[in-house]
Amino acid sequence: MRLGIASTFPPYRGGIAQFNAAMSSALCEMGHDVCQLTWKRQYPSMVFPGTSQFEPGASLKDVNMPATLDSLNPLSWKTTGRQLADRSDVVLLPFWHGALAPALTGVAQEAKRRGVKKVYALMHNDSSHDGSVLDRRLTGRFLKTVDGVFTLSQPVSDSLKAWGPHTLFHPLYDHHSNSIRPEEARRKLGLTDEDHVHLFFGLIRPYKGLSVLLEAMSTLPQHHVLVVAGECYGSWKPYAEAIAKFGLENRVHIHAEFIDDHDVPVYFAAADNVVLPYLRASQSGVTALALHHQRKVIASDVGDLSHTIVPELTGRLVPANHPEALSEAMSKPWLAQPSDIQSAFKQIKKRLSWSAWATQLMQQVELDLSAAR
C-alpha cells in the first residue's frame, strides 16, 4: 500500500521524530511504500521552549526528504497535501501539539480534496501538554478533517471517545545499542560501582514530577544517587532550590541538556532503574527506552504506564505525587528470580514490538478501506 506521513523526522530532535522514523521502517519492512514529508519550519519560535529543534550539529540542510511543510504558511499546507496525494493512498498525520494543528488541518483538507482515500490522525496526546482552551479548539478542528483516529494509549482514547478512536500502544524503541558495559557507563558519568543509581530521563517539565522525586531522594540512604538527564523546559530554579533544601548537592548529578542519541545508551547502562514520577501522563517514550535497555521502571500509576510494567519484574507502580511511596519503591529490594525477570522483559518486548504495532495499524486501515468500497 502507498502510505504518506507528514511529520517530524530526524534530524529534528526528540521522541516524536524517533517514533516516526521507527514507524516508517516498520511499515517499509511490511512491504508498504512509505512517502515521508517533514517540516521546513516546525514550531514557531514563540512556542518552542528549548534551545534547538534539531539534533546537535544538524540543521534543515541535513534533512533527507522533502521539507515543504511550514507551520505558519498556509500555501505550504496545500503543497504538502498535494504531494501526499500524488504519492499516497492513505495518509498518517501524527499529532502532539496544538500549535501544529492548523497546518495539519490544511494538509488533511488538501490531501482529501486531491483524492487520498483515507487520512488518519495519530494522536500522541489528546491536546498539547499543559494545553490551553485554544489548543483544544484547534485540536478539535483538526480531528473534524480526518477519516479516522489512532491513539497510543487508552487514556487518550477515553479523552477522544467522541471521535471513535482505535487504541494501539507505544512500541519499544530498538535503535540504540546495548554494547556499553555498566562499569564503563558509570565512569563516563562520574559514578561509582557502589552507587545505587536512579535515572530521571527526558525533557524536564512540571508535569513530570521531578520535584516529587527530589523529595523522595531526601529520605533515601546516601549511596542512592540520582542522574537527571534532559533539557529543562521552563525554569530550573525550583529544582535547584529543592536540591539545596534537601542537601542533595552531592547526590544529584545534573545533565540539564538535550541528550544526543548516541549518548542515550550510556545513561541507561549506568542506571539501576529509571524513575518516572509523573503527575499525569498518557504514555511514555522513556518507558519504551527503559524496557529496550532492560532497566526496571518505577513510575506513577497514571495514564497507560501500567500497560508496560509487570509488577516486581519489569518495574513498580506508585501513587502519583506521593514522595513516601516513591521512596519506598526506590529502596525496596527486588526479590524476583533473574530468570523470571529476563522472561518478563522478553515477553513485553515481543508484545510491544514495532512489528506488532504496524500489523495492528494496517489491519484497521485495511478494514476501513474494505468498508468504504
Structure description:
The chain is of the alpha/beta class and 373 residues long. It folds into 2 domains: 190 residues, Glycogen Phosphorylase B (Rossmann fold, 3-Layer(aba) Sandwich), CATH 3.40.50.2000; 170 residues, 3-Layer(aba) Sandwich (Rossmann fold). Helix content is 38%, strand content 17%. Strands 3-2-1-4-5-6-7 form a 7-stranded parallel beta sheet, with helices on both faces. It has a 6-stranded parallel beta sheet with strand order 10-9-8-11-12-13, with helices on both faces. Helix 8 links the parallel strand 9 and strand 10. It is globular, with a radius of gyration of 21 Å. It starts with a strand and ends with a helix. The model has no long low-confidence stretch (mean pLDDT 92).
Give the structure's gist in a few sentences.
This protein is of the alpha/beta class and 373 residues long. It has two domains: 2-171 and 353-372, Glycogen Phosphorylase B (Rossmann fold, 3-Layer(aba) Sandwich); 182-351, Rossmann fold.
* Tally of separate helices: 13
Strand content: 15-25%
Tell me the overall shape: globular
Integer tally of domains = 2
Unreliable runs:
none
Order of strands in the sheet with most strands:
3-2-1-4-5-6-7
CATH topology descriptor of the largest domain: Rossmann fold
Reported CATH architecture of the largest domain: 3-Layer(aba) Sandwich
**Total beta strand runs:** 13
